Structure formats: C-alpha cells, structure tokens
C-alpha cells in the first residue's frame, strides 16, 4: 500500500503535534473559521470588564473604601484636620489632612499613654527619606496620607494618634483609637484546584482589595496562551480578563517551581468584583485550576500600602533588572536592587522590605555540606557573634531540600540545647523564618527567605529597623551530622563592621558575580601522627589546622578546636592490654562556660559530640 505511515490515532509520526487540552468529553461542534472565533473572543473580552463591574453587587465594598473609620482629628491649632481610618493591623490612613506647616518640629506621633505625651514615638512621613531622622511635617492642604507604624508595631499597641511638636511638647491635634477596634485583615483562601499542567500552590491569600499572594506556585509552563484570569460565574469561563503576572507583564505565563509571588488586579478592578482567580488558556479555553473568592470579605483597601516584591526578586528576573556579567567578572549595577558583598568572592546579600517583612536573598560559593549565615550583630558598631540573631541557610542532603533556619548565638560553642550556636527551636523558641526559594548553579547556592521586621520573641530575635542602619554579620562554615551549623574558619566570617539600612533602595556595591570566580585548590593534608609506647599522655585544646588538619583527616567538620595529645594534632594512639596509662586533661572544669569546657572521653564514635546527645542517645 502506498502512502504515508501513521500512528494508531492516524497522525503522522513525523509531523509536529500542536498542544491540545485534555478533555473527557467529545466535542459536538467544530469551529472551522478561526478568524470568526478570534473576532468573537475579542468582543467577549471587551465586554468582560463591564460585566465584572456590574456583578456581585451584594458583596461590593463602598465606592470610597478606606478601611475601618476611626473618626475626625480633634484640632487644637495650626489648622490640623483630617479623617482617620484603620487600613490594616499596622497602617493608618488620613483622608483630607491639613496642617499649616509652621511648627519647627512637628510629626505624626503615636503612643500608649492615656493622652498624647513625650512618651510617644514618630511615624515617619514620608515613609522613605534620607538622613538619620525623619523630616518634620511640612504644610498640607487636603492631602491623603498613608502612615505605616514603625518597628512592627500594631494598631492594637497604640491608644492615640497626634500631630505633635516634639521641641515644645505641644499637641496640635489628636484622635483616640477605640479599644478592641476590629481592623480589616488579609483573607486566607484554599490552594489552587489542581486540574491540569501540574498547577498547584499552597493556600492563597488576599492581602488587600487588589493583591493576591500565591505561595509555593507550581505550573509546568506548557500552555501556549495561559494567563492569570479573573471573572464572574460558578466556574472560570471566557468572560474573564487577564491579570498581569508578578513582574507586571501580560505575556503568557512561564513555568513556576515552588515560587512565592504576588499579583495585582488591573485598573479599577477589586476583589469585590470577582468570583474566582484561575490559570486559563485563552487560545483553547481551558481551565488549568482556580480558587473561589468569598462574598464576606473584610480585607484592607488598596491604597498603596501593600508593598509587593520588586521584579528582581523573582526567578527568572526580567532583562531590565537582572545583573549582567561584563568584563573581568564584575556585574553591572541593576536599578533598584540592594546588594552587599559580605565575604569577598564567597557571599553576597540582597534585600528588600515588603510590608511588614524583610525579604533576603543569600548567594554563597559553598559546597553541599556547608552553610551560609547572615543576621544582626550582637552589638551595633562591631561584628559580634555572641548575642547575634542569624539565619543559617543550606541544602539539606538528607531531606533533599533547601532550608533557612532561625538561630541565636549565646556562646561560641556547639549547641547543647541551652547554650551555644543554637537553632531557636532547640532553645524554646520558634523558627520565625519563612523559606521562599532555593537553587544551586555553577557552584553558587542561592537561598531566599523572609522574616517579620519585629517578631514576638524578645530574647532570641532582634528587630530589623526600618529607619536606620544596623550592624550585620555573616559567615560560611561546615554542617555537622545533625545538619546544624558548625564552627567556621577564621577567614570565613565578617571581620569589619558592615552596616545596612534595610529600607534603602539601590544600595548596590556588589562587585563580583560569584559564579565567575575560579575555585582555588586546597593544600596537601598533613600526614596522620602516631603515639605508640608512651604511658603518660597530656591532652590540650588547640586549633584544628584548617584545610590541612582535622576536617580533611577525619572527614568530619570541626568546631574550630581539636585535641592535641602530647602536642600532636588528633594522633592515633596505640595501647596494650594490661598496661596502665595516665592522661592529664587540660580541657576546662567549669561546665557553665560552654566555650571553655571540653570534657575528654573515649568512645568508638568517629564524630564525638557526647554533650549534644539526648539521654536516650547516650544510652
């Protein structure tokens, strides 16, 4: 028989096949005129916005929705006036604010005393400013003001808002916060319904009337014309409209692999106008998955207070913001990106404040059995480990995932469950770090995470200030067998005071692209020392020998110190049965000083660490 061979379904094996959505039903109508279909779709999409705005009248917010109204400012002078609203847990909105600007040292001022007093503190306005202190208020006439409470404070933490002259301690106008005020809050929704193309997520949140937060988003990117899509009705349908992706683009969606993103509704559209959010293929009219929007929303208004992550935060980044490698392994300076070199050639940090969170990306040239640590120094003005609040980021080979763990350093010793370099969870606290993304490419490990500027752990966690610089520390070191931080080399830690203002923008001083740096080879390992035939042995604590000593000899990470027997670094000791040996131990005798207390014991464990074991493990 002459002719082209075909598969069982009649398709040519050599002809490329177009993507088609999978379906369980047999179509009853075939549309052959593509031009007519396209024209009809354009008309339908053109009608979609009008239909959306006309739907769901019973759930729509007021036309001028500014949050929960508190009331008018009671004026005492200088023409102060305005109406105050609670936008969310940490944001106030003043509608129609007026003030003549003639006082020399006036600020928005809040506090928890019975009446406005010098015991309060400033709400910076504008929120972003240059200089060490916020600027004094200038003149305003019918201004709309967004006030973000500083240092993680909540509206429930204050009793009043005042326009206050700090120099002369004069109250120009005040309003009191009603006790027990219920403020609008973000709403948590279910995850995306899983229908096609591997679409899934964790629980989606509505942050305000226009903003979705979609964590742990997965999608294979194979749909040819797929978009975020919103509309009305009991199911997603063609009468929807496109929603820009996390970088504001209306290009077809790329693939996602567990990323956390934020998207915002276009134009005047709000959450009160829609019934669902979906990932929808326009060309084939196919729903990959969706989530429904409740009718009983009490969410913050969209006044610009929700700061979404900048485009560079996402991976892959856009060509307009990604650092491009140029000559000699340096990087061009991208716009609006904060980046500091912490350890030259080994570790960089990027950061941004987004709402009540600080979002941080660590890039480190480390191996899979190493960690990188970054956080706030134990003492401002110098790089101090003791008392520091750090995040340890690494790849967990046992669990096959990237991790970011909250640590508190109370002593320069391995964690014993009470003292030392300890994960917060081991000393009665909690891991306040939210892991965002991890990747390893060309020898560089990248871990992104976020944390509240102010947590509710006053001992283990330090606040990230948004109004000034603060000293930070960083280190790179080995992981122990428990996947916890071990001691780092003295070269792999910040030696100078590095200060960062986490509210800054365009603070970019990184010079090297870490993946362009050539890895140096290590020195030869020292030969193993031997003690044989000696009856008296003195044991002392000393340095580990770096790349030639303890770790390459044993295959285990060290805590920066090692035993020396008769002045030999961790030698092999040969003993004879029936003979008596005397050990003189100089390892410290004060168990309350973990950094100086090192009991000596003999074991068949190649790693040791008896003091870090639980009672059950010791048995």
- Walk across the major sheet and give the strand order: 24-23-22-21-27-28
Structural class: mainly beta
Rg estimate, integer Å? 31 Å
User: In percent terms, what proportion of residues is strand?
Assistant: 25-35%
- Beta strand count: 34
Query: Which percent range fits the helix content?
Result: under 10%
Overall residue-averaged pLDDT value: 81
- The stretches of 5 or more residues where confidence is low (pLDDT under 50) are 1-45, 53-59, 315-334
Straight-line N-to-C gap: 80 Å
Biased composition (Basic and acidic residues): 1-12
Domain DOMON: 345-477
Region (Disordered): 1-27
Protein name: Protein Skeletor, isoforms D/E
Q: In words, what does this structure look like?
A:
Residues 1-27 are annotated as: Disordered. Keywords: Repeat. Residues 345-477 form the DOMON domain. Residues 67-178, 190-294 form the DM13 domain. This is Protein Skeletor, isoforms D/E. This protein is mostly beta strands and 619 residues long. It is built from 3 helices and 34 strands. The protein has helices at 34-54, 550-554, 615-618; strands spanning 68-72, 74-75, 81-88, 91-99, 106-111, 121-123, 140-148, 160-165, 170-176, 187-188, 205-208, 211-219, 226-231, 241-243, 256-264, 276-281, 286-292, 338-343, 347-354, 357-364, 370-376, 389-396, 401-409, 421-423, 433-441, 444-452, 470-478, 498-500, 530-532, 536-542, 562-565, 568-569, 572-574, 582-586. The strands form 8 sheets. Strands 24-23-22-21-27-28 form a 6-stranded antiparallel β-sheet, with no helix packed on it. The protein has a 5-stranded antiparallel β-sheet with strand order 2-9-8-5-6, with no helix packed on it. Strand 25 (433-441) and strand 26 form a beta hairpin. The chain is globular. Mean pLDDT is 81; it is low at 1-45, 53-59 and 315-334.
